[in-house]
Amino acid sequence: MTYTLEADNRVNLKAKGTERILQNGANILSVINGEVVLGRAIGINGDVVDSPITKASEIINIKKQFEKYEPRLKVHKVTYEADHQRGILKPCVEVSIVE
């Protein structure tokens, strides 16, 4: 089964099983490198802010983040949703749970 993840700042501390794994993946997409005090390397690359994005390098970065910090999720596809009016580019990641 595949799931689509987007950045999500909501945290359910009682999440278990599949919900917890998916929440961990959404959390990776929600933070920028350096924001997590005891995990400075967790999160997406903040260097893309205010600079032209190289989608290929960001896709590789996202895949590496999932491999390192949530290996129970396999990344199948990374796309971006653009909100031109607000100037936001959000990664959307299609994943499946590794059994």
Topology:
Elements: E1 2-5, H1 17-30, H2 55-69, E2 73-83, E3 88-97
Antiparallel strand pairs: 1-3, 2-3
Helix pairs in contact: 1-2
Protein name: GpW/GP25 family protein
Structural overview:
- It comes from Ilyobacter polytropus (strain ATCC 51220 / DSM 2926 / LMG 16218 / CuHBu1).
- This protein is of the alpha+beta class and 99 residues long.
- The chain has a single domain (2-97), classed as Nuclear Transport Factor 2, Chain: A, CATH 3.10.450.
- It is built from two helices and three strands.
- The protein has a three-stranded antiparallel β-sheet with strand order 1-3-2, with helices on one face.
- A hairpin with a 4-residue loop joins strand 2 and strand 3.
- The radius of gyration is 13 Å and the shape is globular.
How many distinct folded domains?
Answer: 1
Report the order of strands and helices.
EHHEE
| The CATH topology | Nuclear Transport Factor 2, Chain: A
Please report the distance between the alpha carbons of the first and last residues: 11 Å
User: How does the helix and strand content classify structurally?
Assistant: alpha+beta
Average predicted confidence as pLDDT: 86
Compute the CA-based radius of gyration.
13 Å
Give the % helix: 25-40%
Main pleated-sheet profile:
3 strands, antiparallel
- The CATH class assignment is Alpha Beta
Biggest sheet: strands side by side, in what order? 1-3-2
In total, the number of strands is 3
- Number of distinct helices: 2
Characterize the overall form: globular
CATH architecture assignment: Roll
Protein name: GpW/GP25 family protein
